[in-house]
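Example 4.3 (complexes with small molecules)
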Amino acid sequence: MCGIVGFVGRRDAAPILLEGLSKLEYRGYDSAGLAVRDSTGNFEVVKAKGKLKELFDKTDSGKALHGTMGIGHTRWATHGEPSETNAHPHISGMDVKDSDIIGVHNGIIENYMEMKTKLLRKGYKFYSDTDTEVLVKLVDYYYKKYKCPPCEAIAKTMVRVKGSYALAVMFKDHPDEIWAARKDSPMIVGISDNETFIASDVPAILKYTRNVYYVDNMEIACLKEGSAEFFTIDSEPIEKELVEITWDTEAAEKGGYEYFMMKEIHEQPRAILDTLNSVIKDDGDSKKIDFSGIGIPDEDIKNISQIYIAACGSAWHAGMAAQYVIEDLARVPVRVELASEFRYRKPILDKNGLVIIISQSGETADSIAALREAKEKGVKTLAIVNVVGSTIAREADYVLYTLAGPEIAVATTKAYSTQLIAGYLLAIQFAYVRGMIDDEKYAYYISELYALPDKIEKIFETKDKLQWFAAKFVNVHDVFFIGRNLDYAVSLEGSLKMKEISYAHSEAYAAGELKHGTISMIEGGTLVISVLTQPELFDKTISNMSECKTRGAYLAAITAYGHYDIEDTASFVSYVPTADPHFMGSLSVIPLQLLGYYLSLARGLDADKPRNLAKSVTVE
Ligand code: M6R
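Answer. The structure with 5-amino-5-deoxy-1-O-phosphono-D-mannitol bound is encoded below.
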């Protein structure tokens, strides 16, 4: 996601900040900026939308800015479109000259609207749409109100804000100091002779030092030339151990994982939580889904006659899952279509219908065309999109953003998982607004969603077993994934994960459909992977598995803990925790992603860059 670099030392800061930011480009960004404090104590700020090259050009590769202390940032838009105004650093005033505090931030401030309202009442004015500007102004507010040291002003801010952040700020009247704070968003401090660095990720500073301190949650840091001090939120000093980085840059970018795909698999709990927090508001007594940011009025939700979902690849699979959940909870008919088909089949759309386009990139050519087709027919459109400011996000009537962060591996994992969450959120809210579920059920479903991230962490503990299984089947030729209803939707995704990165031929079938033709393909040793998470359909799928076993198939199964009788039928079982059946896909997909990944690894392939595939398919 976003990247932070800060420097205080004796050399000019700007070239060092730019160099550091370029090492964070792999994280994805849409704009960048830096602030340098010059010898007169003034801040100079330069920002640019688009690639870092723009910032290099605007600053003559940093040579145009003079000052030995500064902060830099690459932004991946979450609040407000990608633009120069929304790019960081953000200032405490409306003009750099009148600003006493300047800062950059990674993460999401969930209650930023509440804080903004408070600050507006206190006379603050805002120039951007970002939560970061609110954060910087809040530090300024406490700093001035209590006339306290920076550490206290930051601590007071930390107490008031909810969400995740890595924050780096400079105070005009504290020359030669950079202050930083962190909660749930990584941050490190690097030290070398007479120089101190701050960064959101190791690669940014590896060229300059390998000696770092890891800032922990709810800690505050003060950087000075060649030294750093750390404090608790109560301003108590903390002793920290200097750690030597032994990785190379490439490994550091991947956070120690061999491939980005594995890193992104592990980012799923966080991505899900961020997506939930972006639309679920806690009013103290209860949690409620708040779609006011999406803009879809309750009256429109009540009047929806039919939902059409159009998407491609994994996004289409997420749509398949959404279909089952929305129909079951909200009782609205849903039709899911491949965007490439939808666009050309002259669809007949009900004027009270809602067309939902799902896309990670927001730039997939077929999905854009499907969106335009729907708009041309005068039907309301809602986009579930990961990239802020993308074409689909800009053109749709309503946008529900997934907060997966930038996804680098071609095979999607965390974006798909957040698309599932977006589908659940729509299903629950539509059901509630349309009177299909009461307050108790509503609260139950929301609490089940919040339980998913920890359950996914639990599944990661079974990785070794899945790796062993993938190694056993390293030479597999044909794999069939079967399941019913939601388990079928997840099987489609499991099969795509396997084929796109391991090149093993695999197909997904609705389990009941096998005997209408495909069962003729099953022979001695064919691998059949079954997904069984829907209690009502458990026995039905077991029957279909038995039909395959009779014909010589090797059976593997993904099911929930407790269903141990599955071992009478399947030779290999991967268990996942239990959740409400509507949301089990978020758990059962994890072992399937891992299986695809480990098979790719066992075959010596590049899991991040599979042959013939592009991350964003911008052509037909
Ligand atoms: O960016 P989009 O979500 O619109 O992309 C759609 C598909 O191209 C994408 O999901 C593709 O299937 C992935 N490579 C699957 O891992």
